[in-house]
């Protein structure tokens, strides 16, 4: 039986066996990373509800027991997947800003992969009820503010930086959820940039 991209789906009963010559720690890190990557894919495709131990194991082509071995609960799996998604988005944003400038990255936000953005925002809102996710949500916000501050060459505590971040976030969320025309967002982003620079 094969799974996504033709990868074999490992039955739940099959015992975990290290590959010959592969150190146990390397194998464990690889399997854990595969499970987290699968959780991020599922978050992106189907949102919060799509991430279950069984779905993650199937997507990663690993036994179901592997998910409970590496993640004691679904909450832990979701939190780590959210953290991975946040770190990935921040790294991409930072790279975009350094390559194309702040104006370009603000426009990129408007045109970004909608499903991935929906996953981020869904978990961000859910974080209001979960202290662990809330810490990750703050890391995302603080990271975005830091990127804007660096681009404007201002301290992150500067009110103008926070104002621009808040404007971008509101437009970003509105665009992702309501799918409003990107041109409207661009006009407002341009006004916000002129107001703070």
Give an overview in words.
With 197 residues, the protein is mainly alpha-helical. The protein is 74% helix and 0% strand. It is built from 9 helices and no strands. It has helices spanning 24-46, 53-60, 64-70, 74-100, 102-111, 114-126, 131-152, 159-178, 182-196. Residues 1-16 have low confidence and may be disordered.
Uncertain runs: 1-16
How much beta, percentage-wise? Answer: under 5%
**Number of strand elements:** 0
Helix content: over 70%
Question: Helix segment count?
Answer: 9
Oligomer: single chain
Gyration radius (Cα, Å) is 20 Å
Mean pLDDT comes to 83
Order of helical and strand elements: HHHHHHHHH
* Terminal CA distance: 58 Å
Global geometry: elongated
Which structural class best describes the helix and strand composition? mainly alpha
How is the biggest beta sheet arranged? none
């Amino acid at each position: 039986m094969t799974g996504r991209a033709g990868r074999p789906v490992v039955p739940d009963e099959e015992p975990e066996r290290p590959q010959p010559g592969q150190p146990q720690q390397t194998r464990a890190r690889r399997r854990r990373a595969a499970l987290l990557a699968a959780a991020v894919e599922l978050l992106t495709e189907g949102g919060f509800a799509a991430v279950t131990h069984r779905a993650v194991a199937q997507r990663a082509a690993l036994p179901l027991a592997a998910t409970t071995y590496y993640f004691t609960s679904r909450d832990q799996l979701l939190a780590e997947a959210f953290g991975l998604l946040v770190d990935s988005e921040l790294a991409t944003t930072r790279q975009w800003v350094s390559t194309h400038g702040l104006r370009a990255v603000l426009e990129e936000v408007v045109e970004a992969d909608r499903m991935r953005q929906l996953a981020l925002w869904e978990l961000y809102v859910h974080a209001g009820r979960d202290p662990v996710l809330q810490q990750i949500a703050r890391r995302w916000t603080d990271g975005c503010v830091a990127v804007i501050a660096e681009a404007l060459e201002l301290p992150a505590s500067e009110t103008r930086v926070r104002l621009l971040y808040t404007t971008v976030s509101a437009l970003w969320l509105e665009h992702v959820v309501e799918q409003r025309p990107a041109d409207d967002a661009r006009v407002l982003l341009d006004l916000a940039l002129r107001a703070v620079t």
